[in-house]
Amino acid sequence: MDEIIIKPIGIIHTPFDDVRNMPIQPIAAESVFGLVEVFSEFAPGLKDLEGFSHITLVYRFHKIESYELEVIPFMDDQPHGIFSSKAPKRPNAIGISTVKLMKIDGNILHIEQPDMLNGTPLIDIKPFYPRYDNRQDVTIGWLEKNKNLPLEQLRADERFKS
Q1: What share of residues in the chain are helix, strand, coil (percent, to 5)?
Q2: Rg (the chain; Cα; Å)
Q3: Which residues of 78-93 are buried (b: 16+ CB within 10 A; e: fewer)?
Q4: Distance (Å, whole) CA 27 – CA 135
Q5: Given this model, what pLDDT does residue 97 score?
Q6: 115: burial class by Cβ within 10 Å (0-12, 13-18, 19+)?
Q7: The predicted structure's pLDDT at residue 76
Q8: Cα dihedral 98, 30, 33, 22 sign
Q9: What is the pLDDT of residue 77?
Q10: Which candidate, 86, 89, 108, places its Cα nearest to that of 97?
Q11: How far, in whole angstroms, is CA 119 from its chain's centroid?
């Protein structure tokens, strides 16, 4: 299969320069703010985005240099396959986060709830639409036993540093 080359469309700016004590999911980053700088050549693509309260950012875990097929995720103490977790040490190091869109100033998106490192390369932006993006009657595998953990209080540690 041919290699896929993806070029960033922008940069995500957050208060997190180190993974230690970072929120592990956007829902745990309430009252944390960041900026998404969309490169000027892609700014026309932001038309009509201001009407959405939430957006999903697709990005590259730019500090990840290798991957692991089994990891111990932040929400457990047992190893699991990488594809049954949201851990960052993935074969393609792609992340997704749904964040609150506060406002747009030209090519700058003001967001709340960032859970990624400062300087993260942005690959894509998608509007969040609850009818399409939410599901009912789901099962959550190994996370079922940890579903009541206080996610808002969980923070990243160094286990996924390269």
Answers
A1: 20, 30, 50
A2: 16
A3: eebebeebbbbbbeeb
A4: 17
A5: 96
A6: buried
A7: 83
A8: negative
A9: 86
A10: 86
A11: 13
Please tell me the predicted confidence (pLDDT) of residue 19.
Answer: 86
Measured CA to CA, the distance from residue 126 to residue 15 in angstroms comes to 23
* One-letter identity of residue 9: I
Domains contained in the chain, CATH given: 10-156 (2.40.30.70)
Instruction: For residue 3, give both structure tokens.
Output: 């290699």
| b/e burial code for range 37-51 (CB count within 10 A of at least 16 → b) | bbeeeebeebeeeee
Reading phi first (left if > 0) and then psi (alpha if -120 to 50, else beta), residue 137 is in left
CA separation for the pair 162, 89 (Å, rounded): 8
Contact, 150 vs 78, CB < 8 A? no
Among 25, 9, 23, smallest CA distance to 109 is for 9
pLDDT value of residue 43: 98
Q: What is the mean pLDDT of each run of 10 residues along the chain (162 residues)?
A: 94 94 86 97 98 97 93 86 92 96 98 97 96 82 70 63 60
| Greatest Cα-to-Cα distance within the chain, rounded to the nearest angstrom | 46
